[in-house]
Design a protein that fits this description.
By secondary structure, this protein is α+β, with helices and mostly antiparallel strands. It has a single domain, classed as Killer Toxin P4, Chain A (2-Layer Sandwich). 35% of the residues lie in helices and 32% in strands. The protein contains three helices and five strands, in the order αβαββαββ. It has helices at residues 2-16, 49-61, 86-102, and strands at 37-45, 66-71, 74-81, 105-114, 118-125. The chain has a five-stranded antiparallel β-sheet with strand order 1-4-5-3-2. A hairpin with a 2-residue loop joins strand 2 (66-71) and strand 3. It is globular and about 35 Å long. The termini are far apart.
């Protein structure tokens, strides 16, 4: 009986130790459990974290599809294909980008998908990427 208990305990710990990929190790980044959201970042310090977060606040307040716009010394972009609402895209991407902005990274990007063909993206960097 003792050996069965140990085996069951080991099996339970293995079953719970499923690796979760997270492309962004930064605070507030979304993880793979949010299967329709993918976060990525451009390494290197840009700084100006407060400026980047102010830009995010402006995007939240006024979400508009845009190929590119300048804010906080970076080029920002918000686009989509078959995605109905810029506000929905922004809402799903904010945790991802807050993580990149919090540590002042060169760039951060969020890609979301839904259904068969709906996709949207929001990000910033030295250029659109």
């Amino acid at each position: 009986m003792f050996s069965k208990t140990i085996i069951l305990a080991l099996f339970a710990s293995v079953a719970l130790a499923v690796p979760v990929e997270n492309e962004s190790p930064y605070p507030n980044a979304l993880t793979a459990r949010d299967a329709n959201v993918r976060c990525s970042s451009q390494d290197g310090g840009f700084g100006r974290s407060a400026d980047l977060n102010t830009c995010l606040d402006q995007i939240i307040a006024n979400p508009q599809w845009s190929d590119s716009f300048e804010c906080g010394g970076r080029t920002w972009f918000l686009g989509g294909a078959n995605w109905n609402s810029a506000a929905d895209c922004v809402g799903g991407c904010i945790p991802c980008l807050r993580g990149s902005a919090a540590v002042g990274l060169q760039g951060g990007k969020c890609d979301q998908s839904a259904g068969v063909s709906a996709r949207c993206w929001l990000g910033y960097g030295a250029t659109v990427w």
